[in-house]
Amino acid sequence: MTITVQLLWAITGLLLTIAATFLPASFASPTWIWEQQEVKTFSLGVTYQVGAVLFVGCLGGKNAAVISQIAYILLGLTLLPVFSQGGGIGYLREPSFGYLLGFIPGAWICGNLAFQAYPKLESLTFSCLLGLLSIHATGLTYLIISSIFGWKKVESLSLFEAIYRYSIFPLPGQLGIICAVAVMAYFLRRLLFY
Fold first, then answer.
1. Which is more confident, 97 or 150?
2. What keywords appear on the UniProt entry (predicted)?
3. pLDDT of res. 27
4. In what helix (H) or strand (E) does residue 155 lie, and over which residues does it extend?
């Protein structure tokens, strides 16, 4: 991929990540019951933010994905309210900041693996899963370190409560988003001929 294309994907990734931060993920009721009742949507309990990170990795590659996530974190730390709970340098003390830091290695791993072989649904799903694993590993490491050194802003959460809240609870919804990201990336990579 040329530098220009990578920069376009990096800008796209930044905009997608910012927009997806505030967009809750949900799915619609099955089509076969639409005649009997109205279309209902059910929340997955997460936003599309992780999906945006992995989507850019699958389509833009490792460089574009990493650049977009570094730009996202820098924008959030400079007082622009692009994070889910605002922004600013004080966000370093938030328990969820480690997961935001995890976007960088997660995007790199996903983008690197997505372009290792010809795009197949299985390989794209695998790259997204490893990217998600990297995000959670970085987030958990940050939670443990912040718990040891007392960096946490919210002292009322114990370490195990924070692990449940930020890693275990959102995981099923994030796995559902990974399925959607892999399918969309597969078809778009076929349409874009790369």
1. 97
2. Cell membrane, Membrane, Transmembrane, Transmembrane helix, Transport
3. 85
4. none
Which residues contact residue 149 at a Cβ distance below 8 angstroms, ignoring those fewer than 6 apart? none
Helix, strand or coil, per DSSP, at residue 119: coil
Is the alpha carbon torsion for 50, 132, 27, 165 positive or negative?
negative
Distance CA 137, CA 10 (A): 24
The pLDDT of 62-83, averaged and rounded, is: 95
Exposed / middle / buried, residue 83 (Cβ in 10 Å: 0-12, 13-18, 19+): buried
Contact 183, 121 (CB under 8 A): yes
Domain that holds residue 9: 3-192
Q: How far is CA 22 from CA 17, 29, 85, 150, 174, in A?
A: 9, 22, 10, 29, 15
Contacts of 36 (CB under 8 A, 6+ apart): none
The H or E element that residue 193 is part of is none
CATH of the domain at 10: 1.10.1760.20
Three-state DSSP state, 43: strand
Report how many domains make up the chain.
1
Where is pLDDT greater, at 157 or 112? Answer: 112
Helix H or strand E encompassing 44 = strand 41-47
Kindly state the tokens that stand for 56: 């850019």
